[in-house]
TrEMBL record:
GO biological process terms, semicolon-separated: proteolysis
Keywords: Hydrolase, Metal-binding, Protease, Zinc
Pfam families, per the entry: Peptidase_M10
Name of the molecule in the record: Metallo-peptidase family M12B Reprolysin-like
Keyword set includes Zinc: yes
Annotated GO CC locations: extracellular matrix
UniProt keyword annotation of tRNA processing present: no
SUPFAM superfamilies: Metalloproteases ('zincins'), catalytic domain
Domain Peptidase metallopeptidase stretches: 73-239
GO molecular function: metalloendopeptidase activity; zinc ion binding
Amino acid sequence: MGKDKTSNKVKINSSETKLNDVIELRDEKEVTNKESKIHVLGEGIICDTEARGHATPQGRSPIKIVLEASEGFIPLWAKDTIIRWRFRERSLSSIKNPEEAKEEFRDLFGEALLAWGDAAPVKFTEDNDVWDFEVVMRSADECTPLGCALASAFFPDSGRHEFVLYPKLFTQSRKEQIETIIHEVGHVFGLRHFFANVSETRWKSEIFGTHNKFSIMNYGKLSELTEDDKKDLKQLYQLAWSGALTEINGTPIRFMKPFHIFAFSSKEVVAIV
């Protein structure tokens, strides 16, 4: 595939020149304007978990922990939840040393969970049989003119998901790699970006807790895991599980169970029948 030096049109080959009028790339300025609502976490780094745009572009005034509520409720994990995961083996086919790559992720993931400590509301276990999410290692980066994603994850629900790692992640410092995984695990726990309530008002979120602008769910130099992050998260789940907290600002809390719970239930029904 080549690119015409005099335009932004992509040439498939010489016999398919008719496509030139159809497949035309926007220039960098147009792309930058269109993607200006992507969350820039740092210089050349964006978050791919929350591709939702800002209702007020570049709006910022983070004050408190922000929870996912875009479906009209706040999804939190049920008590005693264990989330099962595995590697997507075919995603490792382009990696020279796949077993070493697996160990690298296990180390990063383990360090991220240790950082959250007893504030982590769920436990994780590697299971190749019945799984809730797959760790996917992409062979190419996901980039826009604003930067490249390092990883992406998901929010609490009962479906199957991907925890995606991009090559760019492994070009960062060890500290940046761990903080990225800590950030993505925060999404898995149900946390949105620190500024979601202000700058993502098209997708509802709710505020809980009180802490300063330094948070692992913030971005750039403000992105660091704090004791307040952990304290607020732990208190949130403790109050919700005890029944003392059933809604936040009128938005109800709903508990999620992972996919494998329902998979086992289906097997039991089939066995009984």
